[in-house]
Amino acid sequence: MPVRSSAASPATSQTARLGWLAALAAAFSALVYVNALDNPFVYDDFRTVLNNPSIEDVWAVGAIVYREMTRPVVNFSYALDRAISGGSLLGYHLTNVLLHVLNVLLLFHIARRTVEDQHARMSVLPGRQPVRATVVAFTAAATFGLHPMMTEAVGYISGRSEVLCGVFFLAALLAARRWLLGAGRRWLVLAFGLWIGSLLSKEIGAIWPLVLLGYDRLVLAGDPEQSRRRWRRVLGPLLGLTVLAGLVRVAVLVLVENPGGAEIIWRYALVEVEVMFRYFSLLLSPADQSIFHQVSEVSWPPAPRMILALIWLGAWLGTAWRLSRLDGAITLGMVWFVLLLVPSSVLVLLNLGEPMAEHRVYLAAAGFFLASGTLVGHVWAFFDTRTPRSRLLLRFCLAAWLTVLGGLTVLRNEVWSDPMRLWLDAADKAPGIWLPHMMLGAALQERGAREEAIAAYRRAIHLRRTEQAPYMRLGLAQAELGRLAEARSTFQALLSLDPTSAVGHNGLGAVAVLEHKPDEARRHYENALAHHPDDLAARQSLAMLYETVWQNPAEALRLCDQVRRMAPRTPDIDACIERNRARLPDSPSR
Fold it and tell me: Residue 330: what are its φ and ψ, rounded to 5°?
């Protein structure tokens, strides 16, 4: 009878333990998002998904890429969702959750391999217990999966770019690790392809070569000559390519996508340092989450919070440097966290983005939890050998912390389940930002609470007098209540600020229609087109007047035909063309 090798038993046991711990982290990470699967479309979801005609046909690759040229993989994933689930909310949310679970598993294996590679590089100091891969991997992955700061990327459909980029980014790191360990160039080719996937999902993928370089230098053991050879042949050129691609992307952003709208404001760098510190604080204590965060500009002398943020950044980087010789995994995670927040900071420096948004911390948090998981592993190794009571206390503390995080995630998903509740929460936590107040007004107006909506719109206008959207929503709400004189006054106030405003002219045109003044309405719509020849709303409104008031199907047909040529997927435009074509004297149907 063959005898089993006793040496194989511990390895088999370790593999099984890792397997069920990974499955446990993944299952818990999925479970806490069950109550987010039927959450409604919110904010950018209307632009990226609901009103996105390019995703109606999954085979229309050209339209999919053209719509989102910098993130075509994300747009294609939306098209797949629509093709598979028919555009139901469940399909979009389920994809986000599955991608998040996949990221949890990928981070689990990265943390596990990091510990194993670290052990191969550095011998354990005398008197110190080795860090367990099971503890580090489970802690990092489970915390990442359950933490409520991930809700904006996972539960928010438009956060897809973060979770999808994360899948490619983390998978590319695992594949590149195999190449670094000498498994062959096919792993490098695979890693490069996955990296391209991350870049086509979100621009933060450009940071991947820096993280890979950190893994090579801080974690892996190896011959110094081989390391230098990898730098000369692959890693160095890869970093050069990354820098070049980054410069090209910034040039496109400034010169093509936002011509004349970008400017470098260096003081915003201090703002972003404070934002990094606030992300760090929220990861430690997620008590003040919001879809919008109010961030103040730099003042002189600097506010105490800015000084604290600068001290934190110096201490964070200094600690990472000091720990590099003791545990490179902690240093890698700490540097990873800061590096992945740099691309969004560049946008803020160019005055092109919101200073702070929780979904941006998603992939950066993977590095943070790698570092914190490794730190927990050291604490675990120290106390786990003491007494049975200390071991029991360690397990209780970790279970309690994960339970708290999971509960907070479920509660945060509940906030996202009601747009009015979401925007009320945002307006309360960011009282000085106009947009949450306007969106709260929209949610109130949809519920029929028009008076409360009008108050919210007025608050938004008070905070940003030059922003046109609140005027439009306020005027429409007033018109819905029959207060046409107030609506007219609202649109006139906007035109006094910007005489060329299409919103102002179209709004006055709509008021004139309600007042049964078609000639006045036509003048306002024509003024809108005079200043904005591509304005669709003015053309459609004029077409309606020519069709219903002046009984001129030829002119209505001409205007509707122009709209279709400019925007073929405009709602009801085909019906307008067919209806007015049928009314022409020489129409075949007559």
Answer: -65, -45
Question: Structural domains in the chain?
Answer: 28-259+367-416 (no CATH), 420-582 (1.25.40.10)
Q: In the structure encoding, which two tokens stand for residue 337, read together?
A: 């966290």
Distance, in Å, from the CA atom of 75 to the CA atom of 200, rounded to the nearest integer, reads 10
Tokens of 523: 């003048």
Q: What mean pLDDT do residues 156-160 have?
A: 93
Residue 188: count of CB within 10 angstroms of its CB: 18
Nearest in space to 336 (alpha carbons), one of 369, 379, 360: 369
Average pLDDT over residues 346-367: 87
Tokens, residue 53? 């005609």
Distance of CA 119 to the CA centre of its chain: 35
- Average pLDDT, stretch 110-126? 76
259 phi and psi, to 5 degrees?
-65, 125
377 Cβ partners below 8 Å, 6+ apart?
Answer: 115, 131, 132, 135, 136, 139
Say how far apart CA 544 and CA 546 lie, in whole Å. 6
Q: Are 540 and 559 in contact (CB under 8 A)?
A: yes
Question: How many Å apart are CA 501 and CA 492, to the nearest integer?
Answer: 10
Residue-wise pLDDT tens digits, 428-465: 999 999 999 999 999 999 888 999 999 999 999 999 99
Maximal CA-CA distance, the chain = 101
How many CB atoms are closer than 10 A to CB 311?
A: 11
Q: What is the pTM of this model?
A: 0.89
In the block, tokens 């107040």 appear at 437
Q: Of 11, 8, 25, which Cα lies nearest the Cα of 373? A: 25
Residues 6+ apart with CB under 8 A from 399: none
Torsion of CA 159, 163, 164, 170, to 10 degrees: 160
